[in-house]
Amino acid sequence: PGYLCPRCQQSVPSLRWDRSKMSAAQALKKGWLYYEAGQRFLEVQYLTGGLIEPEVPGRVSLDEALQKNTVDARTAQKLRDINTYSKYLTCPKTKLKISYKDAMD
């Protein structure tokens, strides 16, 4: 989570407020990201060269993320299946909703 005043932090004692970094996949697993938002973050990362993990320089392949249990098999399958990608962008030419993958093509 972002910065919260000390008083706000005290109201939620079960969470750690140490400003540690975590990947979108980790935040999604912990429930700190809404599923739709997390899925979009992972889609964009996957399509642009691999998943981002703060403790690893560069990007991580989807297979490597699966082996490290950063993502589960269901999430990996959704990322590999381009038909499941959210269509949240608007094409400037056609005005139709398109996915990030469609916009890249």
Automatic annotation (TrEMBL):
SUPFAM superfamilies: Plakin repeat (SSF75399). The keyword ATP-binding does not apply. It comes from the Eukaryota. One of its GO terms (biological process) is intermediate filament cytoskeleton organization. One of its GO terms (cellular component) is sarcolemma. GO terms for molecular function: ankyrin binding; cadherin binding; structural constituent of cytoskeleton; structural constituent of muscle. InterPro entries: Plakin (IPR043197), Plakin_repeat_sf (IPR035915), Plectin_repeat (IPR001101). Keywords: Phosphoprotein, Repeat. This is Uncharacterized protein.
